[in-house]
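note to self: dont lose this again. the chain is below, predicted strucutre after it. 348 aa total, dont forget to put it in the shared folder this time
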Amino acid sequence: MNNKTNIELRTTPHVHAPHDVITIMRNVVFASLPMAAWSIWLFGISALLLLITVLATCLLTERLLNFKAENTLGDWSAAITGILLYLTLPPSFPLWMGAVAGFVAIGMGKVMFGGLGMNVFNPALLGRAFVQAAFPVAITTWTPALFDGRFTTLIPSTLTAPFMIPQEVGEFNNQVAVDAFSGATPLALQKFDGITTPLVDLLTGMTAGSAGETSAIIILVCGLYLAFRKMLDWRIPVAVMAGTFITAELLQLLNAENPDGLFMLFSGGLMLGAWFMATDMVGSPVTPRGAVFYGVLIGFITVIIRVYGGLNEGVMYAILLGNAATPLIDQLTQPRVFGEDKSQKESS
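---
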C-alpha cells in the first residue's frame, strides 16, 4: 500500500477586499436613488415613467440575453446601469427611445463583452452614445425644471409612438405651447448665447438638462458616501474635477469669454460623470498614478470639447475615450517590482 503523504499546493495568498462586488453594486444603487428622486421632483411623472422604462428594459435584457444557468440580476449591475443611463437622458425623452437605450446599454455594452467585469466601456454611457447618434433631436430637447403641472400632465414627447415625430404644435397643460416649452441647458446658454447661469442654480439643479444634471450638491454627497465606504477610488473624481477646473481657468486666461472653472465643474453632467461614471471599476485604471492621469485626461477632454467642439457637452465622450485608454494607462503606470535591477532590465 502506498502511504505517501499528499502535499497540497496553493497559490500565494491575496488580500481580501472588505466588500464584494454585489455589496458595492447595491450601495451604488442606493447612492444613486437620491439623485433619481430629485430629478423626479424637478421634472414630474414623465421623468418617473422614463426611469421605470429604462430600468425595466435593462433588467429584462439582462435576463433574456443571459444564457447562463444562474440568474445574474442579483448582482445589481443591470440595475445600476439602468439608473445611471436614465440620469444621462433628458426628461422629455420618448419612452420607446429610452427602451432602445436600455437594450443597447446591456446588450452591446455588457453582454456582448462577456458580462459583468468584462466590458471595456461604461455600459450606461455606451447606451447613451447610441441614442445620441440615432436620435439627435430628441436627445437635445430639454425641459425646464419645476414647470407647472409636472405631476398631473405628461411632457408631450413622452408617449410619442415609435418612429413618429414628437408633437410640436398645440397646447401644453392648456397654457404653454409645446413648441415654446423646450428649455436650454446652462452649457448651451453659455456657449451659444453668452449667458451664464447663476452658481446657486447649478448647485441646486434648478435648470433644464438631463435627469442627472440635477443638484451638484446631492451628487457630491452621494459620491462622498461611496468614497468614505471605500467603494470607489476617490482619486478619480478628484482628478477629473481638478483637470476640469485647471483647464477651464487656463483657457479663460487666453480668452476672457470662456467660462470659468466653477461653471465648468457644476454645469452639465460633469459631477455625475466624475463620481458615478468615470469610477466604473472595470473601465478605470487600477494603479494610483494611472487613476490620477485618467481623471485629469477626462477633465481636460471635457473642457476642450465644451469650448472648442461643436457640442456644448463633452463628458460622455471624454469618459469613453478614458475607458479606451485605460489598458495603456495601466501598462505605463505599473509600479516598479521590489528588488528589480533596472539597469539589468534595460540592457536585456
